[in-house]
Design a protein that fits this description.
By secondary structure, this protein is of the alpha+beta class. The protein has two helices and seven strands, in the order βαββββββα. The chain has a seven-stranded mixed beta sheet with strand order 1-2-3-4-5-7-6, with helices on one face. InterPro entries: DUF5655.
Length: 119
């Protein structure tokens, strides 16, 4: 399956992989390849993040020079040592932030969290 770029995108995908961030492209490809096997989505590409969109943005990827920060929203509160930051922003909604530094970080647990946000 090919992931489409949403027509509301204001930047090209390569914008996020310029300079030293180019090293994160294989990790990004690994994450999106695993996700596309589970769910259908499009990219909504802004200046600060790459959004994964179904009806709404359900996950945001922030490409850094040595990691990808994955932000997703869940309707329940949970804890994990992998979660770097949590924001409670609405009744029964929490935003979670997880760092991906290497392929082994893209495991079933992360994919399941993102799928929950998708649903």
């Amino acid at each position: 399956m090919t992931v489409k770029i949403n027509k509301q995108s204001s930047y090209p995908l390569d914008y996020h992989f310029r300079g030293e961030r180019v090293n994160m492209k294989p990790l990004f490809d690994d994450l999106t390849t695993k996700l596309v096997k589970e769910i259908d989505f499009e990219y909504k590409i802004g200046k600060a993040y790459i959004g994964l969109i179904h009806t709404l943005v359900f996950a945001a990827l922030r490409i850094q020079t040595s990691k990808i920060i994955v932000e997703f929203v869940a309707r329940k509160q949970f804890k994990s040592p992998r979660i770097n930051k949590v924001k409670h922003f609405q009744k029964q909604r929490w935003a979670y932030f997880v760092d991906i530094k290497e392929s082994k970080d893209i495991d079933k647990g992360l994919i399941d969290w993102i799928k929950q946000s998708y649903e």
